[in-house]
């Protein structure tokens, strides 16, 4: 658990995680460990597993987020420590192969969270309205903004233009549901800004610690009804990877998701109150853009990701061939490339 907004807090959390998770692995003796994405908790798990000769599968490797978060460095390190790879798209697969991973280890399966979306496993409009006190006849904004870890000391400053723009919209009757950021360094500064009486006391604004996946997806799914005006605003990866499945108009703020593959439902905006307000208004009131968002292709959907992952895990031999990784790159220069 993170105890402070500082660089040492994350490093300490990773070290503590390695110690605690390795002890758990020693007790459990797992046949294989499955780790996910790019969080430091998963990084601790894959370090522990790899050093204990436990086969490890990594979901969502090969993605890009070049905007100042440490996610890319952690994600790529996890990929090199893992023995099997389940990617969300072909570009990600190509990057992992470019790291020298053997092709038989890499499987392009799509984004697993979309399985539950495809199954309709999320809150209904009536549930969303009741649990959040929403009037679905009025516009709704779902807002989450995280810190950028390489500049976490600016997190409190960077969230202010967003809050000012959203409070202005809320004064006009737009319903704004704000959720806490994750526990990266800088997150506490954002929480302090969210919980400021000027913000939490504003008309039509509510602040929640978390909605949980079921309710969160339910709010995004409101966008499927052309009569309901809803927008996802912030810099969470869910705004890039999950919103296309619902056709939900999205404003991506700042640099945190820079470089990530995205659908045509996303508008990028900087830390500028005027630009952010204009982008959110476009998501809520521009009928042409709202229609384009509902019809956008989803670059992360391939179908049945969970079943594909389960099939590979069920059939892969848990032997020395799995544990002993080979480097496919020979280090030879060819036409300006190294192969």
Name given to the CATH architecture of the largest domain: 3-Layer(aba) Sandwich
**Which sheet architecture does the biggest sheet show?**
6 strands, parallel
State the strand order across the main sheet: 7-6-5-8-9-10
What is the terminal separation in angstroms?
A: 41 Å
- The gyration radius over C-alpha positions equals 21 Å
Q: Which regions are unreliable across 5 or more consecutive residues at pLDDT < 50?
A: none
Number of domains: 2
What is the class of the largest domain in the CATH system?
Alpha Beta
Kindly report the CATH topology of the largest domain: Rossmann fold
Describe this structure in words.
Helix content is 45%, strand content 14%. It is of the alpha/beta class and 339 residues long. It has 2 domains: 7-109 and 304-338, Glycogen Phosphorylase B (Rossmann fold, 3-Layer(aba) Sandwich); 123-295, Glycogen Phosphorylase B (Rossmann fold). A 6-stranded parallel β-sheet has the order 7-6-5-8-9-10, covered by helices on one side. A 4-stranded parallel β-sheet has the order 1-2-3-4, with helices on one face. Strands 11-12 form a two-stranded antiparallel sheet. Helix 1 (7-28) packs across helix 2 (40-51), helix 2 runs parallel beside helix 3 (71-81) and helix 7 packs across helix 13. The longest helix is centred in the N-terminal third of the chain and has 22 residues, at 7-28.
